[in-house]
Fold these 2 entries.
Entry 1:
Amino acid sequence: MSISVSIIGGSGYAGGELLRLLLAHPHVMVKQVASRSHMGEYVYQVHPNLRKCAQMKFVDPAQIESVDVLFLALPHGQAQTKIHEYAALAGKIIDLSADFRLRDGSLYEQWYGEAHAAPEWLDKFVYGLPELHRDEIAIADYVSGVGCNATASNLALLPLVKADLLDCTADVTIEIKVGSSEAGAEGNLGSHHAERANVIRTFSAFGHRHTAEVIQEMRLKNVSLTMTAVDVVRGVLATAHAKVKPGVSTKDLWKAYRAVANENPFIRVVKEQRGVYRAPEPKILVGSNYADLGFELDESSSHVVSICAIDNLMKGAAGSAVQCLNLMMGWQETTALEFMGLHPL
Amino acid sequence: MSISVSIIGGSGYAGGELLRLLLAHPHVMVKQVASRSHMGEYVYQVHPNLRKCAQMKFVDPAQIESVDVLFLALPHGQAQTKIHEYAALAGKIIDLSADFRLRDGSLYEQWYGEAHAAPEWLDKFVYGLPELHRDEIAIADYVSGVGCNATASNLALLPLVKADLLDCTADVTIEIKVGSSEAGAEGNLGSHHAERANVIRTFSAFGHRHTAEVIQEMRLKNVSLTMTAVDVVRGVLATAHAKVKPGVSTKDLWKAYRAVANENPFIRVVKEQRGVYRAPEPKILVGSNYADLGFELDESSSHVVSICAIDNLMKGAAGSAVQCLNLMMGWQETTALEFMGLHPL
Amino acid sequence: MSISVSIIGGSGYAGGELLRLLLAHPHVMVKQVASRSHMGEYVYQVHPNLRKCAQMKFVDPAQIESVDVLFLALPHGQAQTKIHEYAALAGKIIDLSADFRLRDGSLYEQWYGEAHAAPEWLDKFVYGLPELHRDEIAIADYVSGVGCNATASNLALLPLVKADLLDCTADVTIEIKVGSSEAGAEGNLGSHHAERANVIRTFSAFGHRHTAEVIQEMRLKNVSLTMTAVDVVRGVLATAHAKVKPGVSTKDLWKAYRAVANENPFIRVVKEQRGVYRAPEPKILVGSNYADLGFELDESSSHVVSICAIDNLMKGAAGSAVQCLNLMMGWQETTALEFMGLHPL
Amino acid sequence: MSISVSIIGGSGYAGGELLRLLLAHPHVMVKQVASRSHMGEYVYQVHPNLRKCAQMKFVDPAQIESVDVLFLALPHGQAQTKIHEYAALAGKIIDLSADFRLRDGSLYEQWYGEAHAAPEWLDKFVYGLPELHRDEIAIADYVSGVGCNATASNLALLPLVKADLLDCTADVTIEIKVGSSEAGAEGNLGSHHAERANVIRTFSAFGHRHTAEVIQEMRLKNVSLTMTAVDVVRGVLATAHAKVKPGVSTKDLWKAYRAVANENPFIRVVKEQRGVYRAPEPKILVGSNYADLGFELDESSSHVVSICAIDNLMKGAAGSAVQCLNLMMGWQETTALEFMGLHPL
């Protein structure tokens, strides 16, 4: 049994990864890929890895036909203005943009600086992180994507929140390091290689929009994200600094982290005493859908450092979207996401 | 139908990639992985990408049991001293080292500086590059691996040699740029990140051992390889400078290159007039088994520049080895090698 | 007027930078450079940038003769065992190692895990960061070096501490990102380029030894350093998360940071509203002795993010050492440290 | 004694480096720096390394006043249209662009695809590479800049040509690897970090414009440049493949290379049997004006590989320009160019 899918916004980085995953998906037939800026071009001219793998050309978004599942990978702000049209094309929609991640229109307005264009749709979408909403996604027709930094943050906090180990009166300070692909396929002066190579560039101390997704999903208030760009193309490392409740021990944390790893096929705990790779790091996750979690606790101060590493374009975007598709269709959750990552890279 | 395989020398980079590919191979059951330096350790402690994918530990090479196919990924020089023992363990052997790549013991001695320890075995092996020896590999019991630089060089020259376009009286000068994984998993001062990052380091102007494989397989005499290390982990780009016969045109070259691409599932021709990726480059091949070919001809001087890009650990090592396995077993040649590569990376 | 200096431990990275700076110093004559592991070799064989600039060879440390100022750039733990001998060779000593940075033997033991070998010397040394101890250094005979991560941390906190703006009851969490040169010239498996490239690797969540220098110099208790290695060779970025006292405003911070910049020739405040380089980043500081400071304040929560960028081998090691020399000798503080850094890099 | 200089085109990479060098020059007073695109901005907003070193703002090019020496660092094609105006402002002009590098208007037209706008000025300029034209530069009023790739190529060939060792009937094939700063400060999609990082990208097999400067200066005909971009910001490595005359030995080459190094303060010969840095490489030349030369000869085939490494913005642009200024003014040739480069980087 096979379904038909199309992608609107296929020329961006997340759209390209989505296309790659769907082309290799055993139960999916990719019908059309649309891109306004590249329509008429072969998809492999934009995503050169797909040469000999995909012969299709980008079509005009206006020419997208009815399909079983429609993926939207548009720049933020565009999906919300046409969501009625898109819903007419497919019974199920997975939108990778930020447009339908927040359930509360006022939260959206607070972080995105303008009113949402289709607030009545916010409730119809489920937040598309299976580790948080697996059962809801399985029965949903409309699923949002996830912010890559929000995903690394939410997964770093998940074991602590789920096991109720966090001292919620204390601040949660999340330091996030990111690669250049996070900023999207459109270059600017700051992304010019000569300016962007060799950087350790803190570009946002407070106020990154993905914070809203952490507030919503972790139900935390005193949370801040500090963003630093480093010299990799792919990868997010979130290092969350928080306080655990008095008396919480390293043993308690092991239990909490292992529980999350056991329940989720793409979560691994990395906490080694020897070797090179002792803690989570995105280097070995490039191309994979895994999220690696680790932690250290200073028992004397209850200061916990919880770490999550992901590939921003996979677990932080296209990978989670395909994982949601699998759940929505009742397929094996890991289908088309089995790539193990590369060592070395 | 499934076969059993084992790997001796599984802790190196090529061995690790081989293991990753074989773990995902639908017709293969990995029985044992041996490593003298890491025996007793979990394979994921050395190859951290395999965490949650492989629970096995490295065993002592002396404990390898009988299997259908035995892979050898030992440092050069070791397989030849024990080939009789290994042959007793498996009916089919694929050896990734340099030990059985050359057919002529004297050529081996010339380039490796010492007599071969098992010269009577040289004739039993087939050179393991399917694009050159597909039919022989299909009926072989013993298949060698390929040198990564030799592979990039041989594939760059293949269309020219096969279509008999080359002026064989002229020198063939091959400039090769390589990443740090080519030097293997054992570090040295020159591979220390602070010394190896940001390099454009010509470490061998003449005399690289892989030259012997080009001489043998392309039947060329005046060929030299110049090796330059650059700041990537994976990837080989071979740029061959040669002369075509008088009157050979760009159109003739197009025909020759397309023919090779049509006959080989992992060969692609890249020669675009626009966009970012106009010629072959290893960046988009990381993790994939493709070899991308391109060329430019100065018709006025008959100077041809032929370019081949590969991932040295895939098409240049483990990928070609698995491709050979598929041929030897009569399976689809591309099985377990479908990964398309990543964009961007 | 010119003085004679020698360096013991000149083959490491800090020693090499020190040599480079001293060779160009208008008032200094470099007499000898010692290295046990490289004695007999030309210094340019280890530090290839010095070819044609320095014709000297490394000598045996035992052959060091009397000089005006002796620099020690040995691995940690060695200077303290021979400090009596070294003091007999020179009236003034600048020791770049960690051996004499802490004033309190018990603090040393706590962080370095063993008793100090010459505790009676701890009081004789001044901590060698001019921004903290300019006047004491000017009259000192014995000056210690500084930890590079400690320097970035101390300078990030200096404006806040000096202006008494910090809420000292709250934790100070310092996230530090570092390049590969920080680990020294001796490679290991983790520093192998193929393993070290492309990393975002949190290698220490708590307990980094440089913490002791922050505790001592800033007189803070609740301070922790979390260390993450990223893919650059040189550079440290320290991002300190702290709380300011109630009512402290962005305007107050501007005043405090500008005051520190005005008093110190190598401190700059970087806080731009436009352009690529809006906050401190080590990319543009490679080779320079500047420390760039920046900050952001969330007035609603009093959460301040204070950032300091340095070149770990310059301001974090050899540069500060030469700056101390200048002060000790009564020369212009910036002598031989005028290099402005490179753009782009 | 001090002279006044101004720069038109100071916001590009070469212009920025020029400004940095001139600010530190003991005999120079920088009067004005002009940039059409950035006029009104502080120079440190574009070149952030100059913060606290230069308080000046970019002025409108039309507001440049009379000075002793005028530097032009404009995009190619602009200087030739206004050279009369510029000549009215200063008695001496150093133009870094390609506009006045070629002596022959028809050679210009052949390689640049259009007629030169001021062909009568071509003869007034001296080609600004001191290693080729030291004496002429010393008495010139108008000096051109140099192409960075041409400089690496010309210096790689210089010892061979000067000692008349080259077999001029054979092709000279020059393989050049370059960093991202060579393409200038204006980004494009291909220079976007996510697309440009990790590349080994052969972007020009034949026909690079700098070839014309090699043809002119080396008086060679059969010369081709093949350009490959690699993942560094600064640096050019030119690897020239040529034939020496029959009987020429390694000893002859040593003599020729040493002679060039002895005559030129910024030329060094690098040819070591041990250590990490055995041949020229740009990594250690960043920020320095040195050009490192090396070679290997296959005596059996007379195939010589001659290598030159430079920093494209220094010896390949701003450094050579300042070196020319020193010669034109009768100052020490190395003034303001003493920076030794960094190890490691």
Note: The interface with chain C takes residues 13, 179-181, 183, 185, 187-189, 191-198, 231-233 of chain B (CB under 8 Å).
Entry 2:
Amino acid sequence: MGKYAIGLDYGTNSCRSLLVDLETGEELGSVVFDYPSGELGVLTDSKDPHVARQNPQDYLDGLEKIVTGAIAQAKEKRPDFQPSEVIGLGVDTTGSTPIPVDKSGTPLGLKPEFANNLNAMVWLWKDHTSHEEAARITEKAAELRPQFLAKCGGTYSSEWWWSKIWHCKNADPAVFDAAYSWVEHCDWLPAVLTGDTKPESIARGVCSAGHKAMYCEEWGGLPDKEFLAALDPGLADLRDRLYDKAVTSDTRAGGLCAEWAEKLGLPEGIAVAVGAFDAHMGAVGAGVKEGTLVKILGTSTCDITVSPTSKELADIPGVCGIVDGSVLSGAYGIEAGQSAVGDIFLWFVHNLVPDSYGATPGEKFAAMEEKLAALKPGESGLLALDWNNGNRTVLVDVRLTGLLLGQTLHTKAHEIYRALIEATAFGALTIINRMEEYGVHIMEVMNTGGLAVKNETLMQIYADILGRPLKVAASDQTCALGAAIFGAVSSGQVALEDVQTAVCKTREKVYQPILENQGIYADLFELYSTVHDAFGKADWSGKLNHVMKRLLDIRKQVHE
Amino acid sequence: MGKYAIGLDYGTNSCRSLLVDLETGEELGSVVFDYPSGELGVLTDSKDPHVARQNPQDYLDGLEKIVTGAIAQAKEKRPDFQPSEVIGLGVDTTGSTPIPVDKSGTPLGLKPEFANNLNAMVWLWKDHTSHEEAARITEKAAELRPQFLAKCGGTYSSEWWWSKIWHCKNADPAVFDAAYSWVEHCDWLPAVLTGDTKPESIARGVCSAGHKAMYCEEWGGLPDKEFLAALDPGLADLRDRLYDKAVTSDTRAGGLCAEWAEKLGLPEGIAVAVGAFDAHMGAVGAGVKEGTLVKILGTSTCDITVSPTSKELADIPGVCGIVDGSVLSGAYGIEAGQSAVGDIFLWFVHNLVPDSYGATPGEKFAAMEEKLAALKPGESGLLALDWNNGNRTVLVDVRLTGLLLGQTLHTKAHEIYRALIEATAFGALTIINRMEEYGVHIMEVMNTGGLAVKNETLMQIYADILGRPLKVAASDQTCALGAAIFGAVSSGQVALEDVQTAVCKTREKVYQPILENQGIYADLFELYSTVHDAFGKADWSGKLNHVMKRLLDIRKQVHE
């Protein structure tokens, strides 16, 4: 009887494996492979800062290394470990990260004739060369198919499938013409493992399809040809060579093929799950369920929850993705996020913190955190907006920027750092409030990612502002863990809820809101919301002349 | 025939002299005396940060040192210099800086029984213990005598005469009762020099009376007893022991008495001019005239111009002082200012500039100025409000704070420094625009103070934003020079215009606005004004959602 699964997590700069005991949750092996190509795995173009591509060969080279490495670690850690006890493999990747492929499903970038053409490589999610195409898709959809936009928060992004493919056609028609089809990275890798990458055979995951390719069963799958032709007849033609049906990740994409079974040292035929995006599988690895919001707290954040399909769920304005089955079968996956969180703190420490706090960014953070932890909410009199990188949810507007107000001649760097932390927490609360307004209730927040693990001060501020207990997932690799869970479940031998119960653990420390702080933060959040709406919404009207005075009043009241 | 005069400038931390040749403007002697008492000359109270007093003995000790020192320097520099050729002395001081005195005009603080009582000392302008009294005066005046408020910008301040005296009565009735009268520092020192300090004899300057004691001929001098009684009957009683008439500084307060002539080494009987505040005499020393705005650019700024009394002049809302004769006879003196300018830059460099710019504040400023001078207007995408210390003109509101917006994940410290410089310039333009709206036209701006002399980058940005040629006064001591001019003029031997023409020179470098920059700054000023009004005015209504986007557009346009 098998009792292990392997999750493979393909990130922007590296990929990693996780071999997990499905009964105890013990993590027996995990290996990281840094992509050797480009700058930290990203192929760039000195003439255009928007270009971000990847070399598909890196994925294949990494695949072998991380799986065999994890197996070797497991054997060392548990001498009686047998690879034959691995029942399945799951894969998550970044996205939307489409790959142009030929009729056999081989990425064009692996073919000698395209080896030096960036446009034939993998189009990484953060490639923004297609911002004009994205704007035109938004425009056309608003005009012809508003329902498409409603499902993705109102604005189609240059980070997504159709923008990138269309831009390839506009920028390099030869590559577009040579591409028989396009495949998401998260669908291509499972196909590789099953040994059949023919575009018609590849199982397509509903997570990537629904979030980025405007796939929805309501309107018959991918956008209709009439709409695509209105963008470009070439896209309408392409639709015939894509797919009609997308499936959830508890589905078996196929069995591990002989060739890869041999390379990886795993049994032939074990289940390979349909792939999905990292955040979505990460949410499963963190134990997402109805009422639990999983926050992946990193340089930016991804906020994911689920709502059972048995309950009616309206479109939630400004929430960029609601997709049936994108996280769990039988539930709408609801995805939101903040464009910058950790990135704002990193920007601040690198650019605006004097060395009196310490010589290195790490020392500066530590010294500031010690000082700001001693402050009461409202004590600095500061208020910030968390828009240094735009606002993903709920305004869906990249053309917004940061704001700080309340500074006097005595304001210190650590006070501003606290205001920035608070601003990101207010941004997070804005997302939760929007979900709740539309009937998705959030009882607890489960956190994962670097900040959740490392920054206790931040976590307490978040608990006080979000007004909910904050837990932290035990695993450091929730994405890979989620992928492993799907690998196991797709085998048909175990049920998802059972595996989640067994392997998704939380750390002992739970951050409980402090009542006194909650009261002050409620006042501050009202001010945040006013400034947020004033600068972020075209239909806002109101007053702002009370904002600075109210902050001074709160500061005074807190001091007393 | 005499041809010299001496100006005495009493500041917050020190006093200084200037001995000037009235025909050539040559400065022959200047000595600084640091007040020995308290912290840098200010008596403070560790239990109350609002307390700021001075020891009157410091004034007397300094008086002898700085005059004899200047004479000694003049003799060395010009061997044929004769003290008998000095025709007058003028004095300027900070203000409102009232002194409680006994019947003989002796400051209570000089009397043994009060030697250890801070309340018997000189109440320095920046003492803010009387903020509650100030608020009550504003309230009562709004109710009973709105015309009083109209002349001082709408809000009575804790930096001013009546607030301080009333607070003394409330906080320490024994001192109030022991004070036969109160005298402004700038009136008391000339009285000392004339040898008659009896309160009834002291010549009171209209500058301090009009600006701080709500003196105006329109309503018969000081506020009427009925109004004062509504505040406190004790203040109404005091009015009888103050003064009925205040005069301009071209008036002779008296002749130098034998005792002080002896101590200073000057001829007995030479003219001592009626005193005034430093900024007002500084404006005269910088060559203020109709159409010329003098800006004293320091930690805060003082903006002064004049408008001939022959022209009708309405109250200018938000401009804190319009007083007939406060600067020049026959003209309304118009005073405005910004609560913090250099102080904002100092706050920034001390608290938010990393050491990668340099090890010391001086190095950091220099490195940032080099980098920011290479930026184009609008290139940073930033916009700031200059309210870190409130807004003196035109909003007259201390309960306002700083604001910065437009920051991204790439914003650098020197870009923010530039935005702060621009914000102070936009604040300065707001003042000029308000004056012009009310018929006071400003053709050129004459600058003095540390920033004007030292910071060429700032001056060019100011010229571009203010849209006028910016000159810099040649003298480093425009306040003392103005005091010397009044010393000379009060002798009756020379005319003010003639002396100004002879001694008020400008530096060679004139900052001319650059047309291309002016255009961009006009756009940025529109955004500044919108945000300024939104956060500063109760009656504002409008939109702000275009602000960040417009800044991004301007940034893009500038980059192209």
Note: Chain B touches chain A through 46 residues (CB under 8 Å).
